[in-house]
Amino acid sequence: MSRAQDANRSFFPFGNPFRMISPKGPKISSQLLLILHAFEATLEERLKKLIPKSKDEILSLSWMTLAMQALCESHNDIKTLITELELPVHDWDEKWIDVYLDISVKLLDICIAFSSELSRLNQGHLLLHCALHNLGSSSSEQYVRACSSLDGWKQHIGSGNPRIEKCGSILDNLLRSLDLPKVKKSAKGKVLMQAMYGVKVQTVFLCSVFAAAFSGSTKNMSDLDVADVYSWAPTFKSLQDLVNGEIRVRSGRFTILNELEVVDSSVKELYPIIQGVSDAIETESLAKIVGELGRATEKLSQGLDLLTKEVDSFFQVVLTGRDALLSSLRSGATFIDSIQAGNRDAQIVN
């Protein structure tokens, strides 16, 4: 299948928004407009739910879990939209299929990178567990072992992940994919492309946030300029400004993830005490600090587990949609029939 050529770049970096409201091209019926408006209203509500009440909620594992759930829901909504539009795959423009398949494979790569980072962070839990176990004794020998475990944890967490570092080039490609394919003859196709644009913007933004959170760097961040003609644009801009602004404030720290930062603070407070560098401390006070580290460690572990499940779910959503489209192209079946068959297969495997 041939790829669309990048001959002349649009003046608008992410597609010409006025093409959506131009009188030229296919006329969108009132019924199709209702479907599109309902889709975009749901997208806007989803974005609103991600706007935290305070900056302290940003970059927490719980917020990231909600963000990944929102991505799963939006990508599932695209599948539902295709059903409502009754737009069979054989009516799809080749460029739409190219865009869908190209984006899906990049999203699968990003999911794999995120999963590897979550696994790496979870591996540090064993070192913290060993340190906490040794801190249960007042023996100086056990304290030495605890120090060794804490040293190992800091080195492990600060070592970096090559897969996360490669996310930058993937995100650059996804940014370029935001440019909308032209729709000349199909009103339903025009609705589908506009809906997909909203989901692509949400996806690129949140994936760039995850990449920045995991790397502690702002180099993979994107400030997307979305035209105001989209009903969800003001909400998206508010969310983007708030989240990206907080990432820039935290950039350069040992970590910008909330739960990881709490663990690191406890480790920094505890480390000089068990090394004997600081003045003698009462057993009760030491137990309090150890208890705080234990609770922070458990909260970090639980948050990583929940986020890992959501990243895995998103991987399956993307994979199911991709497989359904490929199956439809081969067999001539409808896209939604292939999706439903894929979902049944996934349930059997699970």
UniProtKB/TrEMBL annotation:
One Pfam family assigned to this protein is ROH1-like
Q: State the compartments where it is located.
A: Membrane
UniProt keyword Hydrolase present = no
Provide the membrane topology annotation: Single-pass membrane protein
Q: Which UniProt keywords apply?
A: Membrane, Transmembrane, Transmembrane helix
The terms describing its cellular component in GO are:
membrane
Q: Which InterPro entries match?
A: ROH1-like
Give the UniProt family note: Belongs to the ROH1 family.
Name of the protein in question: Protein BPS1, chloroplastic
Tell me what organism the protein belongs to: Glycine max
Query: What taxonomic classification does the UniProt entry list for its organism?
Result: Eukaryota, Viridiplantae, Streptophyta, Embryophyta, Tracheophyta
